[in-house]
Structure formats: C-alpha cells, structure tokens
C-alpha cells in the first residue's frame, strides 16, 4: 500500500515560504478517518502534536493525534490522569497552542499559537465553541449573582453585535415552536420517533444554512401545508405562536435577555429563584448546572465538557449526565465529553476514544468499545471499575505498561479495523493474541 503523508507548510514572516514538512501517516489512519463518509465532520484533528517546554525540558503531551468529531454526536475521550485528554480539549477550545498538525472547527482552522488568533476568529470561537470545566466553583465569579454570571457571554455579544440577544432568543423560540408542532402532529398521525427526528433535522439544517429560510419554512410553507391538510389543532397552535413571536420581537433586549436566561436555567433544572443568589450559595451539582447554562446561552455548535462530573457526588453524577443527553437533543449540540470513567460515559456517548500518554489507542462506537474492547490499556480501564460479581483475585485488575509492545523500526503498530468502525492501534500479531485473551504483563 502506498504511504500517505500529512504536509505542513511552514511560513516565515512577510509571507515567505520557508519549508514543507512531511509526516508519514500511520498505516490505516485514513481508513479510520473515513469510517463515516455519510457524516459531517465538525471537528478535524490532523497529525496534531502538543508540546510543553523547550530544549531538554520538552514534553510532548499529545503525539500525532488524528481524529474526527462528527456533527450531532457525543464523543467521549477517556483516559487516566496525565493521558492528554484535557490538553486535547483545551487545544480545541483554542486555550492551548499546538506545535504541529492542524485543528479545524467547521470552516475555521486554528493557528498553531493561541497568540495568533485574530478578532474575527475569536468571535467565531466565542459563538460556536464553549467549554465546561471540571471544577465549577473556580469558573464562576463568586462576586456576581447568577443572572450576571449566566448573562456575561450574551452581554459581550450584544456589545459586539447589536441585536445579538434578540437573534438568539428568536432562534430558541422558533425551535421550541417547531418541536411542539412536531409533537402535536406526531400524536395526531401516530408518527414514529424516526419521522419526528427527520422533521427536526430538516429544520435545524435550514436554520443553520439561513435563519430566514427556516422562518419561511415554519411560518409560511408549513402553515400553508397544515391549512391544506385541515389539521386544525396544529394550525391554530402555529398561528398563535406566530402572533406571540411578533409580540416578543417588540420587546427590549433587556426583557428578552431575562427570558432567555430563565429558559436556559430551566433547561438544566433550575428556576427563577436562583437569579439573585451567588455561586457559593449552591452545591457542587447546582454550580455545574449553572456553568452548563452559561455555556449554552450563546447557542454554540460545539461543547467541550472537561471532566464535568468527576468533582460531584455519585448520586448527582447521573443527573448531570442526563442533562447533557437532553441538551444535546434539544439544542442540536456536538459534545466532546472528557472523562476517566468508562462506565459513566457509556450512558451518554455515541462513540468512545481511548487515549494514553498523548497517543490515541482505540476508537469506535460505544457498544463496541464497552463490549468488544481490545487494547490492553482499554482493558486496564475496564478492570479498574469495581464490580460486585468480579471473579478477579486482584483489586487492581490488569495493569497496563506501554513497554509490553516492544515496538521497533520493523515492528510498528497500525490502525486495524476490527469491524463496525471499531479501530485499534496495534500490530496484526498483537490483535491476534488479544482476540484470544492473551495479554502480556511487564516485569522489571
């Protein structure tokens, strides 16, 4: 098979081309990246390195990362402390520089250095990418009440783009109207969940292409269709909603902002009573909900959740997980969910990617990773999860050490397709042994 390369053009100042650096792609990388040709790639990592320090003190936190995040999915990036998962999220949010490769979000490619981000790109990132951090209390200003904390982002948006608040409010309003309308029609016509999803996806697609097209589709074309079909209940609801929309358009930005903040808080299970209180008055779970609503108020396309439940009580973790799942559906979100807990992400993820010491090792659909995991590092993560019915004699379970691979110049791993878009980084011999349940252990 012909070798494939990632080419990076390095440019000096004043636009003078310095040199082109070529990096050979690990065998099977392109097949892994092309696993879902029918899906839209919202995020693309291509041969990404992230390094800290310089000279003898250089540390490569991420090494040759190639990965896609598809529009509308929840991809969980899983690994233990120091694996590079949070660094990956930070680089995607343009908070950390990368030394090689490319990171693309939608139509924009991030510069290698965060200091090179211009105002246009910064505005794009603010509008489309938001991050939720592990410790909610450190990311919430203790001296501002909840109304000010949650509204900070849209206040900045209004300063830069006059009418920004109204635009977001009306977007939420139209989506809620269409969702309720589909529910009415589904009940009257016995639609399946799949049919409902098709209608919703069509509206979201139109809205993304052109909000005026989405408006015409909802309040003109759809209304005419309802009149022709004589669906009086749905028609009356849509006509009433259109009248209410006109009333809302006439309100001031301040009133719309209040309603918008309230809606976002309600979407995470909070109500109006929290608005005048301060972050330190709340529990960890409530603080995280506030952080989620603050991130969502700008209606980003991509949400990066960095260990959002690890600091919470176990009893609260499942509640927050369910919130993420609901919000993904309601707001058509794409989520990179970063965690060390494989069992917890099982309930929220569409796909799981496993990373260790900056190297991506295994990636695939959630069911495949949980039931048919193959890489020894993934095995170690699975066996680290306590189980009542475990027959293991060791509390530690399998302990992974990278030295078991004994890779050399002539014995290099490749991305092996295990079927069902499940890929593992390994040699063919390793895959053969692992499928038999034979895993090496490293002894000094």
TrEMBL record:
Keyword Transferase among record annotations: no
Name the PROSITE patterns on file.
ABC_TRANSPORTER_1, ABC_TRANSPORTER_2
Q: Where is the ABC transporter domain?
A: 45-382
Q: Which keywords, in A-to-Z order, does the entry hold?
A: ATP-binding, Nucleotide-binding, Transport
The UniProt entry, under Pfam families, shows: ABC_tran, oligo_HPY
Q: Which GO terms describe its biological process?
A: peptide transport; transmembrane transport
Entry's Gene Ontology molecular function annotations: ATP binding; ATP hydrolysis activity
Does Nucleotide-binding appear among the keywords?
yes
Q: Which Gene3D superfamilies match?
A: P-loop containing nucleotide triphosphate hydrolases (3.40.50.300)
Per the record, the similarity remark reads:
Belongs to the ABC transporter superfamily.
Protein name in UniProt = ABC transporter ATP-binding protein
């Amino acid at each position: 098979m012909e070798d494939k390369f990632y080419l990076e053009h390095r440019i000096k100042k004043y636009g003078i081309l310095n040199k082109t650096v070529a990096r050979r792609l690990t065998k099977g990388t392109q097949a892994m990246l092309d696993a879902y040709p029918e899906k839209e790639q919202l995020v693309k990592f291509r041969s990404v390195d992230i390094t800290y320090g310089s000279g003898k003190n250089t540390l490569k936190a991420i090494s040759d990362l190639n990965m896609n995040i598809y529009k509308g999915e929840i991809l969980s990036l899983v690994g233990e402390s120091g694996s590079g998962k949070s660094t990956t999220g930070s680089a995607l949010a343009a908070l950390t520089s990368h030394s090689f490769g490319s990171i693309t979000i939608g139509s924009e490619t991030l510069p290698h250095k965060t200091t090179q981000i211009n105002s246009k790109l910064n505005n794009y990132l603010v509008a489309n990418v938001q991050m939720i951090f592990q410790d909610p209390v450190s990311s919430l200003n203790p001296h501002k009440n909840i109304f000010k904390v949650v509204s900070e982002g849209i206040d900045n948006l209004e300063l830069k783009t006059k009418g920004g608040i109204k635009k977001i409010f009306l977007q939420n309003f139209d989506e809620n109207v269409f969702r309720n309308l589909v529910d009415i029609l589904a009940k009257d016509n016995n639609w399946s969940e799949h049919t409902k999803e098709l209608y919703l996806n069509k509206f979201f697609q139109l809205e993304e292409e052109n909000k005026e097209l989405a408006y015409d589709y909802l309040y003109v074309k759809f209304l005419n269709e309802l009149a022709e079909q004589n669906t009086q209940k749905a028609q009356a609801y849509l006509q009433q909603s259109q009248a209410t929309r006109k009333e809302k358009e006439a309100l001031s930005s301040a009133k719309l902002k209040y309603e918008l903040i309230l809606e976002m808080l309600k979407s995470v299970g909070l109500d109006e009573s929290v608005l005048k209180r301060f972050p330190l008055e709340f529990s960890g779970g409530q603080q995280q909900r506030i952080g989620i609503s603050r991130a969502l108020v700008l209606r980003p396309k991509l949400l990066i959740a960095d260990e959002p439940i690890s600091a919470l009580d176990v009893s609260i973790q499942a509640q927050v997980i369910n919130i993420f799942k609901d919000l993904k559906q309601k707001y058509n979100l794409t989520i990179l969910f970063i965690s060390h807990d494989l069992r917890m992400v099982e309930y929220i993820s569409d796909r799981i990617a496993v990373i260790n010491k900056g190297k991506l090792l295994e990636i695939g659909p959630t069911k495949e990773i949980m039931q048919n995991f193959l890489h020894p590092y993934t095995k170690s993560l699975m066996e680290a999860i306590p189980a009542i019915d475990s027959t293991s004699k060791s509390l530690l379970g399998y302990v992974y050490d990278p030295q078991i691979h004994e890779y050399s110049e002539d014995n290099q791993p490749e991305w092996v397709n295990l079927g069902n878009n499940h890929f593992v980084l390994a040699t063919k011999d390793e895959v053969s042994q692992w499928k038999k349940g034979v895993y090496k252990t490293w002894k000094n």
